[in-house]
Design goal:
alpha+beta, Aminopeptidase, Elongation Factor Tu (Ef-tu), domain 3, 2 domains, 8-stranded mixed beta sheet, 6-stranded antiparallel β-barrel, globular
């Protein structure tokens, strides 16, 4: 197995299966890593983890989501073709030819996503929709049912993570948002004596509605919050604004949220003081857990600090090792030097 250079734990997180609503494997990995590093761990009724380091005001919340995009079985025809419903957003054409893992850990089977919309000479007749794509396992419907594959079974992309030719580049299936989970775990391990009240939250079902963030933020009622997530690196386009290897990203605006100005200004000042490069993001598409956190109760000053990746919401993403390490460095400094209460 290829080990991601310098950070093998990240590989374990990326390779774990955890489509939205099925995050158990990821949750178990995280709890194992942090159980002796915090004062208290709770798992709520939805399945999100809250890791608490006790302290005094202000109350700080950092959140990363455990779930990844994937599929769920909605129909199995008599020949054994498995048709699926999407969990999260992606272009169906990127699925064709992908190996997948169908079912639960310990009882899963392997398959390949395919479509009849490809002719014998491999020219695309027309762009397929998800309704045209199915999982081929080589098994009949009755054989699948005997193996426990039914309507509602999960389908996950099956890709092993590792380094590219340049070992600073990391590839894998679930960089969104196992990178964020890894960053939070590293912060928990590195931050020993902190005065502030800290809540590190690993949320569920971000990809289908930011649901875990909503319930955990309501329970914690933080003074301010950071969602740690990935964003799209467009450094292969003519009008690129976010590049791999150019530092953590800080969100000013996304499709659903304008980030808190006070928190962002504090982060920008810290980055300059520590000479950590950052990339500011204004986006018209997508959002993160920070959106639902910011709307909790009377409102929570919130922003997003993260890592730009290529091929976001596809079967294999690409990230830069230096961006991940700089994100940890920046957030560590932010926790040690929090902003004053950022109320209006």
């Amino acid at each position: 197995m290829s080990i991601i250079k310098g950070i093998p734990l990240l590989q374990k997180f990326i390779d774990a299966y955890g489509v939205s609503g099925n995050e158990e494997e990821v949750r178990d990995l995280i709890v194992k890593q942090i159980k002796n590093q915090v004062d208290e761990i709770t798992i709520d009724n939805m399945g999100s983890i809250t890791a608490h380091k006790k302290g005094t005001q202000p109350v700080l919340m950092l959140a990363a989501h455990m779930d990844e995009i994937g599929l769920m079985v909605k129909k199995i025809d008599n020949s054994g073709r498995i048709y699926c419903s999407p969990i999260g957003g992606f272009d169906p054409t990127i699925l064709i030819g992908q190996r997948v893992h169908v079912g639960k850990k310990g009882s899963h089977i392997h398959g390949v996503l395919t479509t009849d919309k490809i002719s014998t000479d491999l020219d695309m007749i027309e762009k397929p929709t998800l309704d045209d794509i199915y999982v081929d396992t080589g098994l009949s419907k009755s054989q699948l049912e005997k193996k426990g594959i039914t309507i509602g079974s999960y389908v996950s992309i099956e890709v092993k993570s590792g380094n590219l030719g340049n070992e600073d580049y990391i590839q894998g299936k679930a960089l969104d948002d196992r990178i964020g989970c890894f960053i939070l775990v590293e912060l928990i391990k590195e931050l020993k004596k902190i005065k502030n009240e800290l809540y590190f939250v690993f949320t569920v079902q971000e990809e289908v509605g930011l649901y875990g963030a909503k319930t955990t933020a309501y329970e914690i009622s933080p003074d301010w919050a950071i969602a740690v997530d990935v964003t799209n690196a467009d450094d292969r386009s003519p009008d690129s604004s976010k590049f791999l290897g150019s530092g953590p990203t800080v969100t000013i605006k996304d499709a659903d949220m304008i980030a808190n100005k006070c928190v962002n200004e504090h982060i920008i000042k810290l980055s300059k003081k520590l000479k950590i490069p950052i990339q500011l993001e204004v986006s018209d598409i997508g959002t993160t857990d920070a959106f639902n956190i910011s709307l909790s109760k009377g409102g929570v000053p919130s922003t997003v600090v993260g890592v730009a990746i290529r091929n976001i919401h596809t079967s294999v993403g690409i990230a830069h090792r230096k961006d991940i390490l700089n994100c940890i460095k920046l957030l560590k400094a932010l926790i040690k030097n929090p902003p004053d209460l950022c109320n209006i």
